[in-house]
Amino acid sequence: MLNNLKFNILLYFLCSFSALSQDNPEEIRKKTLQTRKISSSISIDGHLNEKEWENAETATNFVMYSPDNGKPIDQTKKTIVKILYDNNAIYIGAVLHDDEPDKILKEITERDNFGTSDSFGVYINGYNDGQQDFRFFVTAAGGQADCLATEQNGEDYSWNAIWESAAKITDSGWTVEMKIPYAALRFSAEEKQTWGINFVRELKRYRQTYTWNFVNSQIGAVIQQAGLLKGISNIKTPTRLFFIPYTSGYLSTNKENTDFEFKGGLDIKYGINDAFTLDAILIPDFGQTKYDNVVLNLGPFEQQFNENRPFFTEGTDLFSKGNLLYSRRIGSVPNLSITLDENETIDQYPASVNLLNAVKISGRDKNGLGIGFLNAVTEKTMATAYNETTGTSREVEIAPLTNYNVTVLDQRFNKNSSVTLINTNVMRNGSFRDANVLGLLFDLNTKKNTFNLSGDLKMSSLYELENTNGYNTSLYLGETSGKVRFSSGINYVSKDFDNNDLGINFQTNYTSWSGNANYRILNPNKTFNTFRVDLNSYMQYNNTTGKIQSNNFNINVSTTNKNNHYFGGGLDYNPFKNYDYYEPRTDGRYLVLPDSYGAWVYFSSNYNYKFALDINPYFTNTSEKNRNEYGITISPRYRFSDKFSFIYSFDIYKQQKNVGYIDSDETAIYLAKRDRDTYTNSITSKYSIKPNMNFALSVRHYWSYAENKNIYSLNEDGTLTENSSYTANKNSNFSTWNMDLSYSWWFAPGSQLSILYRNNANAFSRDIDKNFGNNLSGILKDNLQHIFSISIRYYIDYNQAKNWFSKA
Questions:
Q1: Mind giving me the DSSP string for 124-173?
Q2: What pTM does this model have?
Q3: pLDDT digits 0-9 by tens, 754-785
Q4: Residue ranges of E strands in 562-627
Q5: Cα distances (Å, whole numbers) of residue 751 to 246, 373, 444, 726, 796
């Protein structure tokens, strides 16, 4: 009863805040475009020469969104847009005038990559609720990009739809035609439709963006400032049922053996209703996903990797709520505590656990209710334990049959606010632990979008020998409009909070305070197109002892000059000693870290030029003599043509007198003062024959070594005492090499042929050879693993397939 009362009071408070406004907000001016239905077909070829286009109503008089917000478009760049529709799709035609058509930028790139190219886009909100856009873009080179957009999560380009487009360069500019099937959109079942709509044009050579309906950049919300599309009536969403069968083959070879593996499977997408979609993968294949950028990790926390598997990246904005899902947990290297007999060891853990199947349901209805459901099952996995004393081996279960589940309910209201309930759950077969995390989140904005109040309350529960509960809660308040803005927040995390079975969280048992104040120009001045300065502060205290775990005060400046070159820089200051409770790897022990200061500078030249350069030097110095770190990243790029580009990146990072854990026993915790050098070289290059046919090259060589200079024992007060008795070699020398050369051909809508050659190698040693050439040649000489693979995926639309059978 008490809990229900508390929840009702909280919900009343949240809804009341979202309605706050000193005055009734001025109604956002909305242009209206009237469309009409057609019965004849439109050829999507970039030529608006069908009679139907002649009588269509036009949308024109575009206004600049950035950098000079509110400035009308020049008549030499006049933009005219028309919309038609039939029983299956809407059609968008755009005429984009340009008095210098030979200067239109039109780099050819793969899907969802705008490159250095002009572009035209349409933002569609079928419910006209100011909550979510379906955005479709066409570049001047004919490339496609599409995304889902919300104010809370921005643009999610992992979402992909099947639609048609064409672009043509003309003597007076360029033209675009688009056909967007209703299956790619979401809208209500009402007889007469009113959609939110906006059109956007980017003039790349000027770095200018224009919209049809004026979008005031002083207001945080963009989706709410769309125009209206009227005239659509008596349309129905077709059956949204899609099958994507695939087949792939992998040839793997190294100096010891050669293997061939054949795979086949099926992905299914089904529209449950107008709002919700089911995605399922049967016998998944992630063999062609991008490699991970592995590093030498000497810290107390695991390395966090990006998710590269399409199923877990596509349209997952709902599942990202509260940062409780780290999808790389599903099918990752087993990390559970395994009971071994005395003198038993497991020499090699599997690199991953096989995913048996996965399914997700997601979408949002006309009332603003978003529902997300994700479920995945991984198989039971065994490894071999070897007893060094008896010389015997046995099979050990290191990962049981496991079910992973995420459920999200996200209610949006007042067009700019939301309350979310999210639950993550992991259930393991047998005696292994289970885990559950429940989160309540809110994100509230005043009607004028001038202030934001957000926060959350999360509870984790672990079920093993001793069940434990932990809590994580935060509250943030910020001003979100105008030249001067601020924000402030507090975060409390209890010692037993643990969401790492399906999420990722490094630090617990602390309370933190943060603050930000920033100033920006809203329109260009004589010197800058954009200018912003931020003042940030952060303090973190250990809940048990009250000691400072982290502190930082910094000022950062970011600018774009009139030539669209970017300049940035910042100063960092940590005036207090930090008490690091994680580096000692022992509960209750800590390492005292000195106060420090640092600075960084960043320069990025305008990518419109064929040659461009990014450079970022940085350093940190401490109050402890000779204990510092510094580095620089240099990345030149060159665009040889609209088809071919090349990017090289080099990063060197040096740490002197760095202190870190190396070992422990019953008598002491051992740390070392070490010098560490890290070198990273990478190359990315692409050659695009046309937008649906691309070659890509990606190469990365990473080398890092840490040389221990002095060994210390950790004292109870967090200080160090030199230890001369510890003699084990705990130096680290790690290098890794990865190369991907791929060919991708989208031979039909949604259907792709991929050919990939990959080689990779890594090496770790306690002995350090500081010769760069020896390191590179050594890793390439004997360690390379070669993989050649071919994969074909074919997209089948049920609506087309049933016509095939009827004709047969």
A1: EETT-SSSEEEEEEEETTS-EEEEEEETTTEEETT-----EEEEEEETTE
A2: 0.90
A3: 999 999 999 999 999 999 998 888 888 878 99
A4: 566-574, 578-580, 591-593, 596-604, 611-622
A5: 10, 26, 41, 60, 9
